[in-house]
Amino acid sequence: MDQIDNIKTGILNHDFSNAIFIWEAIVFPICVALIYGIIYSLNKTNAIYAKRRKELLRGSKEADVFSTPESRNKNIQEWVLIAAKSRLPDENERKFAIIAADALIERILDLAGYHGENLGDRLKKIESSDLDSLNDLWEAHKVRNRIAHEAGYKLSPEDSARVIACFEKALKELSYI
Prior knowledge:
Protein name: DUF4145 domain-containing protein
Number of strands: 0
Organism: Candidatus Giovannonibacteria bacterium RIFCSPLOWO2_01_FULL_45_34
Keywords: Membrane, Transmembrane, Transmembrane helix
Strand content: under 5%
Oligomer: single chain
């Protein structure tokens, strides 16, 4: 028991300042290197994610989520139905077509990694250099918002054709159709 007390006393009375200095000298550079590694990894991950998102928007064959023949045919059929409704004489059908086209673009941008509460939020996250038809999409989305929020909004066949053309331009650029 005396030996244990002697060891305790030796430990408690020992000057560890040298050992702590050595410990700090070893641990500090390791911590700095690990923190640098974490920051470097995060930056590289973000760069890869941004490149992937651009590839999706540009329609890269490696990243094209719509490239299988089955999905391509389904996409074209879906768009043909929307475009056909946009040419009907019934104004409500034309409005429905524009809302459907807006929802389709919103879904595609979500798949491409542009997340947000609505299409407007997603469009704000896109750089104009990433999508040439970005301004057209904004114009088409503004018309969709007027349809959805203004009860008396009148949609002429000409306006419907112009808006659908804007959506179609973006869908082609995104390699959806």
